[in-house]
Amino acid sequence: MQLSPEQVGSVNLLLAAVQLAQKRGAFSLKEAHSLQEAINVLNPQEIDAPEGEQTEATEQAAPSVAE
Questions:
Q1: Residue 9 placed within a domain
Q2: Domain assignment of residue 33, given as a range
Q3: Which of 61, 64, 66 is nearest to 19 (CA)?
Q4: 4 vs 7, 9, 16, 57, CA distance in Å?
Q5: Within a domain: 67
Q6: How confident is the prediction along the chain (67 residues), in pLDDT tens digits per residue?
């Protein structure tokens, strides 16, 4: 199954929303674990990045704001 660029963008937006909701404590630990496993399947490059380091795609998507 081939996804259109719009569909890929939609999936990425949903993944970002799930991750934001988890950071805000919206899910139980069991639910969070299940959701993270699903995210890892859809977005495997996030697994390889060491904690505290952003991937190139993340840096481009969210540029830093000057204080």
A1: yes
A2: 1-45
A3: 61
A4: 5, 9, 19, 19
A5: no
A6: 788 999 999 999 999 999 999 999 999 999 999 998 988 888 776 555 555 554 444 444 444 444 3
Task: Provide the 3-class DSSP secondary structure of residue 40.
Answer: helix
pLDDT of residue 55: 46
Domain count, the chain: 1
Residue 47, CA distances (Å) to 5, 32, 66 in order: 23, 16, 28
27, 21 Cβ separation under 8 angstroms:
yes
Q: Decide if 15 is inside a domain.
A: yes
Whether residue 32 lies inside any domain: the answer is yes
Output the pLDDT for position 41. 87
